[in-house]
Amino acid sequence: MRTLALAVGLGVIVACSPAATTTTTTTAPAPDVSTTSPAPVATTSPAAMVTPIMLPPGVQWSPAPASLPTGARVAVIDGDPSKEGLFTMRLWMPNDYRIPPHTHPAYEHITIISGVLHLGMGNAFTMSGADELRQGAFKVVAPNMAHFVHAAGEVVLQLHGMGPWSLKYVNPADDPRTR
Ligand SMILES: [Cu+2]
Asked: How far is the CA of 100 from the centre of ligand 1 (A)?
């Protein structure tokens, strides 16, 4: 993951550089994402993902709440999802992690920090028609809109929305809290 972290770091530096805004006379062609192969599946532990780039100082990954399938990690970086008001959290998913079809009571705003996430809409978990969201991608899911995700390799995403936040599975049998 060192390469990825370095790449992200460079991206941040470039984005923050004043020079980046003054040298716009030549526009570089956008990378052709359709021919870019997914990042190789790494086995880096969540702890190794914790860098100043991934999380603000003092914020640490915790095991995902009981409402999510085991294996993911979360870090709340602003606000409190259990209370009223705006919150922002990050979610780390291992390779092939899945969240079955579910809904939320409010808008879900998803930003991909790293990795490749498949995001599909509807009541049935299927990759056909699912969006392939890559680093930097942003997606809004409307309240009560059934959706599901699959991590193609490790994924770190940022989720922000208005609390109190909750998650309801379309199929109650998918709910880890009921097992
Ligand atoms: Cu969701």
From this structure: 9
- 11: Cα within 13 Å, side-chain hemisphere: 12
**Prediction pTM value:** 0.71
pLDDT digits (tens, 9 = 90+) for 7-22: 444 443 333 334 433 3
Our CA dihedral for 105, 146, 99, 90, rounded to 10 degrees, sits at -40
Question: Separation of 67 CA from ligand 1 center, angstroms?
Answer: 11
Give per-residue pLDDT as tens, 37-71: 555 555 556 655 544 456 778 889 999 999 999 99
Q: Quick one: CA torsion of 59, 65, 68, 71, rounded to 10 degrees?
A: 60
**Å from CA of 33 to ligand 1 middle:** 24
What is the whole-number distance in angstroms between the Cα of residue 147 and the centre of ligand 1?
Answer: 6
Tell me how far the alpha carbon of residue 10 lies from the centroid of ligand 1, in angstroms: 30
Q: Which residues surround ligand 1, an ion (CB under 5 A)?
A: 108
Question: What domains lie within the chain, and their CATH numbers?
Answer: 42-178 (2.60.120.10)
Euclidean distance between CA atoms 104 and 61, whole angstroms: 22
Ligand 1 centre distance from Cα of residue 140 (Å): 10
79-129: per-residue pLDDT in tens? 999 999 999 999 999 999 999 999 999 999 999 999 999 999 999 999 999
